[in-house]
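Hi there. Long-time user, first ticket. I'm pasting a complex I've been working with (about 669 residues overall). I'd like to know whether the download I got is complete or cut off, because the file seemed smaller than I expected. Thanks.
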Amino acid sequence: MRLLEFQAKAFLAEQGIAIPRGSLVTSVDSVDSQPFPALLKAQVPVGSRGKAGAVRPARDVREGRAAAGGMLGSVLGGFGVGALLCEDAVEHVSEMYVSMLLDQASGWPLLIACPEGGMEVEESAMRAGGRVLRRKIDSSVGLPDYLVRYVARFLGLGRVQSLRQVLDGMKEIMDKCDATLVEINPLVQAGGGLAALDAKIVLDDKARFRHADLFARLEAEQERYLLRARTKAEALAAKYGITFVPMNGELAVISDGAGTGMLTLDLIGDLGLRAANFCELGGLANAETMTRAMEVAFADPQVRVLLVTLIGGLTRMDDMAEGIVAYKKKTDIPMPIAIRMCGTQEEEGRAILGREGLDASTDLGSSLERAAALVGSGRP
Amino acid sequence: MSILIDNRTRALVQGATGAVGSFQCRVMLSYGTRIVGAVTPGKAGEHVHGIPVYEFVEDAVRLHQPNAALSFVPARFVRDAALEVIDAKIPLLVITAEGVPDWDMAAIIGVAGNKGVTVLGPDTPGLISPGKCKLGVHPERMFLEGRVGVLSKSGALSYEVGRILTEHGIGQSTVVGIGGGPIWGMRQATVLGLFEEDPETKAVVLLGEIGGTMEIEAAEFMRDGMTKPVIALIVGRSAPQGVRMGHAGAIIEGSGSTAEGKIEALRGAGALIVKRPSELPAILTRLGI
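Hi, the file is complete. Here it is re-exported in full:
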């Protein structure tokens, strides 16, 4: 889960890291009670908000109301803006970047620092001669003094002690909350110390079982302040916990594995077809999962043809066939469907489909051709 | 020969008393896998299809000397179960669970490295050396004993490829599921190295996908570490830009997580690139396999 800025900053503040004074506003009228000058920042979990016009300065209430009116309710990266963080505009000279993350390639936590933070940090890091420090953090020793002093020198900071507090706080969040990324950008020198003007924290959804209350609280906040512009299909997929990727074509794809699903999408593209959406059932799907995936796929109004590609290992094809038949019996299948079915219990699965007048091929290529023909025949 | 497992493998299974574990143990036993013991806390003294169940890994190790462990333990208990296997220095541990927290995997990999234990997974169907041993959930009839090594991030994609090769009479030495990540124990480059050293393996099929940079690392290994032919299939060429890289991630990784980047790197390192599994039999036949 990627936290919203105000949530991430609350984590930092809890660790004693300085953040600008500010509060959330959810309506234009509530801007009136805010102190100015201020910075109004849209609370959406997307990057480069500054460039997208989602961070606006306001010198007084009038400008504040105009900025809030422009941003509240607007859509950014697929999210409707339901809240703004209205903050003191902190005077500062230079902007630094510092982050800690769990590096997926090595399995090690990393500390990354860059003396040139702000919006251009990626470009700066990529540029030849761009200065970026990357250090492994050995979990058994933590953050030794020399490393903190080294980072301080690299960032051009005299105050080692305030950097120590920032880094310790970031590490504490990683260790205690299963965060896989804690990023402060920019980190600035202000008021005799260091302050975090923006922050990004990503918590590992897979560790939810360790932090059930925390996740529930953070999600409830996001529900309240993020206006999700969800389609019917997306809402159904979320309700059922099925992986769903919307696209822009006419052919819906359901698969029982991410790898074979991606392969199917690639081959669809090679045939000049366009996928409408993609549902992945996961490795341990049952009949109900299959029925629900069909509900999700058909909820997308642009779908003209459905292609189901199944190659069962743990997943049993008789279960999958039962799921398809259950859907057919409940609402009838509203459009042409091509099925590929092979693997565990495939004969049983095909027999179940056959009794309902549905046929399935064992081979991916021929099911793709069938889907292509169905799409072609449906075109005017 | 084969890699990692063969008919000398003596397997220990964690989580064999659950529904999936028990069913899969029966399938593995009928395939010929020697399962010498099982471990489930609180169930010591029971038997699963004749396999004795122990309280601790140490107990099973003392009595049966297993040289590989397979975990069907649910994600939230994986860390503890894995640390117990690693502490007992069983040289190979296969973690099938999906959804293991990243920090748990980081801890497991760190400790395993110190103890010389190889971890395969998480989120893997395991591995199969057809005709010899199966440690995991691969549907066995899609595989045939032979000389092609296969490694895959995706379980289902390796079934797809195994099935097509087997239908064309092209057998496999070992089919290794490294798992879906996002943090991996054993990585593609390591598996390539094992296939390179295995006298039975004559060619390798690498099944990769978008995200991360492991395929780039595999390509780097291939440049001076690989003499055998490698055929690569990278899926996700048409995937929408939904899986956006994080800010910090982009700083570390740069480019290279796209299908195009990976295909270019692998081709540059000498791999043959295919777009669909059905191209594989002809290429392998041409290579004399």
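A couple of notes from our side: Chain A has twelve helices and 18 strands. Chain A has a mean pLDDT of 92.
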